[in-house]
Amino acid sequence: MFGYILRRLLSAVPIAFGVSVVCFLLVYLAPGDPVQTLLPPDADAETVAQVKRMYGLDQPLPVQYLTWLGRVMVGDFGRSIATGRPVADEIFRSLGNTVLLAGLSVLVAFSIAFVLGTIAGRHAGGWLDRVVTGVAVVGVSVPNYWLGIVLVIIFSVEMMALPASGMGDGRFDPTSWEHVQYLILPVITLSMIPVGIIARTTRSAVSEVMNQEFVTTLRANGLPEWRVLRHALKNALPPVLAVMGLQFGTLMGGSILVETVFSWPGSGFLLSKAILTRDIPVLQGTILVLALIFVFTNLTVDLFQSSVDPRIRRA
Amino acid sequence: MKQRLALLGAALAIVANLSTPSARAETVLRVAMTAGDIPLTAGIPDQGFEGWRFVGYNLYDSLVLWDLSRGDRIADIKPGLATGWSVDPANNRRWIFQLRQDVKFHDGSPFTAQDVVWNFERFTKEGTPQFNPRQFAFARGYLTNFESVEVVDAHTVAFTTKQPDSLFPYNLSFLMMVSPRRSAEVGNDADAFARNPSGTGPYRFARMVPGERLELVRNADYWDKARIPRHDRLVLLPMPEASTRVASLLSGQVDWIEAPPPDAIPRLRSSRMQIVTNPYPHNWAYQLNFVDGPFADIRVRRAANHALNRADMKEMLGGVALEGYATLPPSTAYYGNPVRYEYDPAKARALLQEAGCMPCQITFAISTSGSGQMQPMPMNELVKSQLEAAGFRVNLQVMDWNALLQLGREGRERHQGVNGINISRATQDPFNGMLRFVASSQAAPRGSNWGHYNSPEMDALINEALSTFDEERRLPILARIHEKMSEDAVMLWVAHDLNPRAMSPRVRGFVQAQSWFQDLTPITVEAR
To answer: Which pLDDT score is estimated for A312?
Structure first.
């Protein structure tokens, strides 16, 4: 088990740096200038060159990359060009907000989808199944930024019941309505796609297990239907957990649109600002951290899965 | 019965007490900016002119300020931390500035001539402890003609310019004076200073959550007693997404939003929100290539200007624009009487025939978005269709805003296949509004004369304006420059933005100046 964890951890390192090289180069392939954000739009070419020199951006690319890499190895992500603040501070402050949003969304999605998917899988082919599948297809297909705007129009603008943007003032307090109200619309918006995906996965896993011989055996032994279902669910859980973990990883990196719609100060919002201003240190740091989170989420899910499903451990 | 009456009386007294609060509640103005982040608080701000508008001129003052007290003409400069200035009669490169006395920084230290010199070293002098590369980057554009500054006495400084420059005071309006004492307290660390800034402005810094909010409070000791804020607290929130700003205003989360999208304005009006618009020095146009391609011929430039139906453009923008017939909006003091290129497609065709360019192939470099670009895609599509109806064949080369700025900086030499660039410009003073586009000395990449317009007559007018230090006498020369820009059809003019902003009905007392900057201090906010 320990060897397995170590192997997985080590394999994450080349993935992370592969990602960092690719994103570093992509940033440079795009036209425009990272010092643009420091200068008025009308700055002349000489000023641009002088400021680039001050920030070390006139060095050859491999030199810049290696300098950056050397510092990252000791935990120094550098300073944002746009704000002058340490990149590590920016990333971890916004990352906490995104973890809150993505974590809650996945939990909400899982709770709803697992129930829906089980009902559908239990009654595969019936009208309940068709209703749930329909809901799942809608959930996956609706663009979430659009859903966010619609929810804002209904609940913030028309009903004035919930705030439209931000996450409130001061340190986030999960016990106070003052703060919790800011979470509701973004969480609903963000959980819609995972609801669809997890419900479909649960449905197919449950319906597959329900057709297996051991279920017939359990029924033949005279077990009540709810206990049969409990056995079946335990067997259906591993693929659902895997998908849920992947969804969490996706939401961590993929909430850019939703965070922008709600001005949620998370890593997606940070990333979109960094892209627009070509803030290379922030961009590199954020992408690297998000890639690592994705890798480690997968790892965690695998480990969790093997604890639920002994077959994986044996393999 | 008596007892009951007494009880009722007591109850009424309690209710009355509840409804008259013992202390006046704090009044707060909450503003949603279009910026993606809080503008820099350490002196000269970033985030473009929005940074100057909300942070720069609120926390700080410059020697020269903008008169934002009226809305009926394009704003001009007025005394700020300097009470007056004049050029040295013996040397027209030397400017004497008298400084305001009895001004104190928010940390209590007095503002003196020595502080001005200290601040200019912070902008320009590498090697001094307070030198700051970011402030250098922001300031440099305004200091191209700056040579030196010296203390004359405790409340007088003298600037020397490289060239005689009658417009020099305009540049000083962008350079914020920060407190040397506070800077020393934080070891001249600009980031630490940004977290605890000290200036002389009408608001003091209260607190900041990076990326989320900046809170400023009234400076009751502000030197300009007429501009002591009439609300207690100003909260600035970055909100780059337009629909989010609209929703936040409608749901009562903020009191004021910048730049609501035109299609949201009817919705805002129906919810009793106040919409204000006013011209300001903004020009949405195409700078043309005077060397390569068809626009080298003045007939083609005039044809393009006659081909545009600007009324259609205004309608498409929901009326939130001014038809653009010249470089400056008509409410500018030196607008003059420029020729007006009315919509006349037949005339445009005739001019193209005469120039032997039919159909006339042209390429414009445009962006998908960007500060001041309004709605670049639909606007460019409309321009294209109007030009094509008059005999042009238009190729729109679409790029990212940063890429377009870079193309604009590099100039026509490196982009000979491009016949025009669509970078909207701030035109707040004569140099930035006109001279930099048409002076041969400003040819890109040195300056903003992207297409290398070159006219000895224009250069002579510019030199005359720059060496005329009497404002009354300078004004007609500037008007003549503006008229000549139109005669020579140096741009393809399309529109001037009307700068819409929306605010809750509780916000009172705001006068929208014809400027990129606005004075928030007279605003009162009614209780909910």
So the answer is: 64
A210 vs A129: CA distance, rounded Å: 14
Cβ proximity of A20 and A303 under 8 Å: no
Q: Is B266 on the interface with A (CB under 8 A)?
A: no
The series of mean pLDDT values per 10 residues for chain B, 528 residues long, is: 48 44 76 89 89 96 96 95 96 96 96 97 93 86 92 97 95 96 94 94 94 94 97 93 89 93 90 94 97 96 97 93 96 96 97 95 92 89 97 94 85 94 94 95 90 97 96 96 98 95 96 96 91
B-chain residue closest to A263, CA distance: B239
Phi first, then psi, for residue B494 (nearest 5°) are -125, -55
How many angstroms separate the CA of residue B213 from the nearest CA in chain A? 8
Partners of residue B137 in chain A, C-beta under 8 Å: 35, 38-39, 43, 47, 51, 54
Task: Annotate B124-162 with b (16+ C-beta within 10 A) or e (fewer).
Answer: beeeeebbbbbbbbbbbbbbbbbeebeeeeebebbbebe
The answer to whether B253 contacts A163, with C-beta atoms less than 8 Å apart, is: yes
- Residue B321, beta-bridge partner list: B497
- The answer, for B248 touching chain A at a CB cutoff of 8 Å, is yes
Instruction: Report yes or no: B397 at the A interface, CB cutoff 8 Å.
Output: no
Report whether B415 contacts B293 (CB < 8 A): no
**Which amino acid would we find at residue A283?**
L
* CA distance to partner chain B, nearest, from residue A255 (Å): 15
Name the residue among A31, A41, A273 with its Cβ closest to that of B371.
A41
Q: Is B46 near chain A, with CB under 8 Å? A: yes
Shortest Cα distance, chain B CAs vs residue A289, angstroms: 19
Contacts of A9 (CB under 8 A, 6+ apart): A299
Question: Are the CB atoms for B393 and B361 separated by under 8 Å?
Answer: yes
> Is A84 buried (19+), middle (13-18) or exposed (0-12) by CB count in 10 A?
middle
The Cα–Cα gap between B500 and B450 comes to 29
pTM score? 0.82
Q: Which residue of A has its CA nearest to B52?
A: A40
Partner A, chain B 174-203, Cβ-Cβ below 8 Å: 190-191, 194
Q: Are B253 and A164 in contact (CB under 8 A)?
A: yes
Mark which residues 470-489 of B lie under 8 Å from A by CB: none
Q: What is the pLDDT of residues B199-235, one digit of tens each?
A: 999 999 999 988 889 999 999 999 999 999 999 999 9
Chains A, B: CB pairs < 8 Å = 154
Domains along chain B with CATH numbers: 24-60+201-278+499-528 (3.40.190.10), 61-183 (3.90.76.10), 282-497 (3.10.105.10)
Distance (Å, whole) CA A161 – CA B156? 58
Complex prediction ipTM:
0.70
When pLDDT is cut at 50, 70 and 90, the band that residue A1 belongs to is: low
B118, amino acid identity = W
Q: Which residue has the higher pLDDT, A25 or B500?
A: B500
pLDDT digits (tens, 9 = 90+) for B281-337: 999 999 999 999 999 999 999 999 999 999 999 999 989 999 999 999 999 999 999
